[in-house]
Amino acid sequence: MKTSQTIISTLRDAPADAVIASHQLMMRAGLIRKLANGLYTYMPLGLRSFRKVENIIREELDAACFLEMKPTVVVPGDLWKESGRWQTMGEEMLKVKTRSGQDMVISPTAEEAFTAVIRDNLTSYKQLPIIGYQINTKYRDEIRPRYGVMRGREFVMMDAYSFDADQKSLDESYEKFAKAYRRIFKRMGISAIPVRADTGAMGGSGSEEFMVESEVGDNTLILCPKCGYAANVEKASCRQDTALGADGKPEVKTDKPVEKVPCPGVETIGQMEEFFKMPASQFIKVLIYKIYNSSLELAKAPGGASFKQEKSESGSVYYPVSFFAVAIRGDLDVSETKLAAVLKASGAELAGEDEVIAYSGAPHGFVGPVGLTKVPLLADESVMILQNDGTYDVRVHDTVTGGGAKDIDNMHVEPVRDFVPFMTADVRTVRPGDKCPDCGTELYSKKGNELGHIFKLGDKYTKSMHVTYLDENGKAQIPLMGCYGIGLDRTLASIIEEHHDDKGIIWTMSTCPYQVAVVPIKYQDKMKETADAVYAELTKAGIEVLLDDRNERPGVKFADMDLIGIPVRIVVGEKNLPNVEIKERAAVSPVLVPAHEAAEYAVKIVRDALAALDS
What we know:
The protein is of the alpha+beta class. The chain is 25% helix and 29% strand.
């Protein structure tokens, strides 16, 4: 391809809304152009790289014998009503109606579509496992689309779904995908970090994310430097530690009765530390949360009878809105994602002040666990742990809590004696410095962006959507599902995030728009003849080559090729002939090579680089 036959539309400066490297460089290099907030067009150079990402994914999944399919992007809303997610998916899902009034969904994900297709074609255990995938357009109505294609409204995903007869088969399908993902990201030259993750709105049990480090990542990774433990902060756990008193020693169980202490204006943990001369770890703070679409049975929970219960079209029962009190050690924070997962809910957020008072009798800052009757109480495991024998392992003794009335705190509160929670669970947000749950080493954190995600969904969708097969005995069984996704746009942007410098993109050889750029200082006379000859030889050898035949100054051509990130540049200048200058994009200096050997020299660079990525 000659530059005169394509579109080279580089920019000196990035748009003001481009704040991360990939967004800035994709715009400046002319790989994408913005149509509207969160909506981008891939220009010819950008699309070539995008297709390479797509092809690598397809090649690895096909090599693993997964089956490519193509459901529609617009899906009947009835399928989402069957699964129960019509009500719970949230406002990111774009719902539309046909002219006849039929509800439709612009797919944000495809569990329902694939489940419906398999349901109509599955009859016998002999057909299982079935593993199908698609590479298709998705739409999510992001409230704050940002970072270019890293978080847009319309995007392309590879999403795959496995259907298995039993847990052992599901585990095998899951591991096949984990292996394929590692191959995919290695071939692209991405340093992906597998981490444990929350299943979120997808549901299910096991879940693993493949993250790439990023200074402005949407996710926080919690990592162990010793044993390799890695988790998204939304899922991360840590070893339990014991609360220490002002003397640095663990507090012991007290026989003192609860004492109400007037403390006007002492609302925050910091203010409590100053007032009581005690460390934050010796307090229990109680927060009231508003919970959305919980499927937990709350009929026998304190206050549970006041929450309205509804039944989805799939027959599952849930609470559109409920409230929970959460007790946690004073120096810790609640992970709303972990809380929602524990409560089998689609989301959790702090209740408003009026709601806090209505359910606890006290304003925020003075809510306590003693005497709560209008709302179920969940105690974080930093406070107490319900053991298998029905007893509690209490982690905080002789503590101070909110007093259940404005400007009142309670001293000498003893868990179990003074309050018993409805349930206990790990809902704390893990922080750097906490101890690894596996080996006890101090954990550290870094920012990252998600590239891919794999889930063990179990029977969440196959059960609600009535998918069955006949087993060896002719008995109807429900298959188990797995779900696997990679965001192509985000992956492309992540390659740039990891591989760039102050001059522009440094593409990996497997994902570049062109592998070699032939740049004549002037496209005329002997320079034109030599450039055409090298171009022809490279093309014959199967190398993707861009010939810069523009009538531009050499500095402009060099700057554009550095910005666009072509891995190998061959400069044909009158001063060096009969030699030409070959420079790899990431190299400090070029080398001079006889013009008749240039193509062979460049071919070796390309093939060696591809072989290294493919090894």
